[in-house]
């Protein structure tokens, strides 16, 4: 079951937050940011909201934000790494990804 989750980037707390309303944070992704790179370090979902798409919403929103800001992602969070394996359309965002093959 998927919830109506909105994800915001909270630079003061250095994390992306999944909110159900103004007071309920269902989960977050911690990050560190440099000039051209965002390091995604840890994802956490409140146990009360596990299995409801909160983690996926966080991963997608964080990576979409990184893409929109023309940055690269260094992903050390195991959850987001696993999520990206299922969503190869985000591969080009990886800082440490091998270059794409160019056909002749």
Descriptive overview:
The chain is an alpha+beta fold. It is 23% helix and 31% strand. It contains two helices and five strands, in the order E-E-E-E-H-E-H. It has helices spanning 54-68, 78-86; strands spanning 6-10, 15-19, 25-33, 37-45, 72-75. A five-stranded mixed β-sheet has the order 1-2-3-4-5. The longest helix has 15 residues, at 54-68. The protein is globular. The model has no long low-confidence stretch (mean pLDDT 90).
Which descriptors would you attach to this protein?
104 residues, alpha+beta, 2 helices, 5 strands, globular
Helix amount: 10-25%
Percent strand equals 25-35%
| Strand order in the sheet with the most strands | 1-2-3-4-5
Question: What is the alpha-carbon Rg in Å?
Answer: 14 Å
Residue stretches low in confidence (pLDDT < 50, at least 5 long) are: none
Can you count the beta strands?
Answer: 5
User: What order do the helices and strands follow?
Assistant: EEEEHEH
Mean pLDDT: 90
How can the largest sheet be summarized? 5 strands, mixed
Count helical runs. Answer: 2
Principal-axis shape: globular
* First-to-last CA distance: 45 Å
Task: Assign the structural class, choosing from mainly alpha, mainly beta, alpha/beta, alpha+beta, or little secondary structure.
Answer: alpha+beta
